[in-house]
């Protein structure tokens, strides 16, 4: 294990690579085996038993089968656990598979089926909780309503900060205090371990859609949960039973990408700050949501809970839905697409897309557009937004907006 005294940037480069020298390799090995040779029926059977119940492989045993254990995935998990200040981490085929596994594991372990969801949440998480699909009964609330929402059978409190898509910041330690004995899951996707460590603030689990900043290049789908060893075993057991393990190629790409995560996040954050400042000066923009602005951070959590504002910006267009739709179709350097955290900049309309399944009383404004700032020069991004805002207001082009509205 890389010594914990290293700077986080150094850990991002070196964590999870301790066995490489003994293997005689320098770059991360990619093990694509779907099955593994067994040392014999007795030891093979024992290995199966240990891994299927959430344990680690043992000396002289076998990894048995790739749904149970994969060394490339395990190295990524070890690295992520170090960055998250966690004992262990468990990786899944997507962020939603990770959320699903947490809900299944904690409700099964505690024999409780009630979950408190602190809104706003990512649309998919909100949908999963509201659907009742997993036998979970959800109560949604605001951060100050957690205590009132708790029941005798509450298994988990779920929160996200910065929250998607409006970038509201939630005081993690305050929610943990209100939750009492009930474990709190923090979706740390937007902040990344570069900016925020939920477990240090008392959260039981820190979850990522690894598809976003951890991957960072728009070419991986994955999810990961950092937590203590006991919860990690429950999650691995759930993962083995339900079959939601991360693919080794995804783990390889994610682990490779962790080395540049700190520099990517800091550079993207600086770009986002420049873009957000400029957007604030534009008459077409009614409101800019960016945690780096005092009005977006009333609790003063940037600099304390969260080391920086992050690289996401949300804007409300003065021209409402038509202006939002026109902007997303007029940009040229930004890609109009869902997802976030990539090296290239993305723009999307949450109410129509990522937050489409959210109940209408909790849906984001129709005038809201979300920007994920990449590594382009901020002046190029600003120039693109300038031409897109100007072309949409000068032509008054709402035909595209109307078409989208009809399609909704
Ligand atoms: C994308 C996202 C998810 C879901 O992750 P997938 O990898 O798409 O399954 C969960 N939480 C947040 C905050 C997200 O942005």
Give a short synopsis of this structure.
Helices cover 39% and strands 14% of the residues. The chain is an alpha/beta fold and 408 residues long.
Walk me through what this model shows.
This protein is α/β, with parallel strands linked by helices. It folds into two domains: 8-33 and 70-258, 3-Layer(aba) Sandwich (Aspartate Aminotransferase, domain 2); 261-407, Aspartate Aminotransferase, domain 1 (Alpha-Beta Complex), CATH 3.90.1150.10. Helix content is 39%, strand content 14%. It is built from 15 helices and twelve strands. The protein has helices spanning 8-14, 20-23, 41-52, 71-83, 95-110, 123-131, 146-149, 172-179, 192-195, 229-242, 248-258, 261-280, 320-330, 378-395, 399-407; strands at residues 88-92, 114-118, 137-141, 154-160, 184-187, 205-209, 223-227, 285-289, 312-317, 335-336, 346-348, 368-372. The protein has a seven-stranded mixed β-sheet, sandwiched between helices. Strand 4, helix 8 and strand 5 (184-187) form a beta-alpha-beta unit. Helix 12 packs parallel to helix 14, helix 13 crosses helix 14 (378-395) and helix 13 (320-330) crosses helix 15. The longest helix is centred in the middle third of the chain and has 20 residues, at 261-280. It is globular, with a radius of gyration of 22 Å. Residues 394-408 have low confidence and may be disordered. Pyridoxal-5'-phosphate (PLP) is lined by residues 94-96, 122, 124-125, 160, 164, 187, 189, 209, 211-212, 221, 223. Pyridoxal-5'-phosphate is lined by residues 94-96, 122, 124-125, 160, 164, 187, 189, 209, 211-212, 221, 223.
